[in-house]
Amino acid sequence: MTQRVFSGMQPTSDSLQLGNYLGALMQWVALQDGREAIYCVVDLHALTLAPDPAVLTRRSRLTAAQFLAAGVDPAKSMLFVQSHVHEHAELAWLLSTFTGMGEAGRMTQFKDKSAQVGETGTNVGLFTYPVLMAADILLYDTNLVPVGEDQRQHLELSRDLAQRLNARLGDGTAVVPEPHIVKETAKIFDLQEPTKKMSKSFSSPRGIIEILEDPRVVAKNIKAAATDSDSVIAFDPQNKAGISNLLTIYSALTGRGIPEIVGEYEGKMYGHLKGDLAEIVVEALGPVRERTLEWMESPEQLDAVLAEGAAKASAIAQGTLSRIYDRVGLLPPKRG
């Protein structure tokens, strides 16, 4: 039986960053072959940050365009915007009635984000964010979820809820999803604070590598990346976080093993590694940047791809939601 894959990403900035590209998009593209892949711009999740409406609209298209530019193929995958498939919100409500308050309150990301925005900036949507994420996954009877380490806890909630549905409503009510985590590229760190994850929301302009950034700025940021006072190129995340981060990026983009790269730079200075890595990153991201801009010049074509993906996704979502509604005892609507 063909495995079904689901994953999504928020449209919270104009440009995705290198961590998204290496840790998510490259994996999405690889998972398209031999599996039924469903990828989504999760714009409903983005509402928890109270975005400007016009900005959200633009970023939703930009995010989808970057998915396509990175290699997500509409002929192989369903690509759509979350709000275009209303069953996501409907299943989220049902799942919220199966989720305990303490269970939701233990989510690490809620604690972190609510601490950052304060009580006045914390909304109920931020609290129930993991439940909507569970709905995203369970709605498609997903077998496999490519997910970063920081989202593993949310996936565990999805698994718990699927098992709870099956226990209460009967086996086969929901598929229990499995994680797909690529450890080598699961986490790319901030160039200036290499003990912190590279983040669209919290990295400084000099600490992040954005896909749509001017290549000259990308190269400059890499060459200015923080390292230690030593000059030995070695992979040691504990004691040499900065240089280890650069080696991880180098390995991920070239497919070469880190020991091989370290051996090549034996006796050389950090500047040699940074200069070569800057060229590698610019060369890798350049085509993605160009294809993204091409998609944005044809919004009608982009919207057509998203509409086709939403129609295919809706067909699956309707079946899943109907099955769960029937088992939970909701009265089916009269048709015709």
Task: Name the features.
3-stranded parallel beta sheet, 55% helix, 336 residues, 13 helices, two-stranded parallel sheet, mainly alpha
General description of the model:
- The protein has 13 helices and 5 strands.
- By secondary structure, the chain is mostly helical.
- Helices cover 55% and strands 7% of the residues.
- The strands form 2 sheets. Strands 1-2-3 form a 3-stranded parallel sheet. A two-stranded parallel sheet has the order 4-5.
- It is globular, with a radius of gyration of 21 Å.
Topology overview:
Blueprint: E1 4-9, H1 18-31, E2 36-41, H2 43-46, H3 53-70, E3 77-81, H4 87-96, H5 101-105, H6 108-121, H7 124-138, E4 144-146, H8 152-169, E5 178-180, H9 215-223, H10 241-254, H11 258-264, H12 270-296, H13 299-328
Parallel strand pairs: 1-2, 2-3, 4-5
Helix pairs in contact: 3-12, 4-7, 4-13, 7-8, 9-12, 10-12
Order of helices and strands: EHEHHEHHHHEHEHHHHH
Looking at the structure, what is the overall shape? globular
Average residue pLDDT: 92
Using only C-alpha atoms, the radius of gyration works out to: 21 Å
Summarize the main sheet: 3 strands, parallel
Strand order of the largest sheet: 1-2-3
How many β-strand stretches? 5
Distance between the termini: 35 Å
Number of helices: 13
Classify the beta-strand content into a percent band: 5-15%
Structural class: mainly alpha
| Amount of helix | 55-70%
Poorly predicted regions:
none
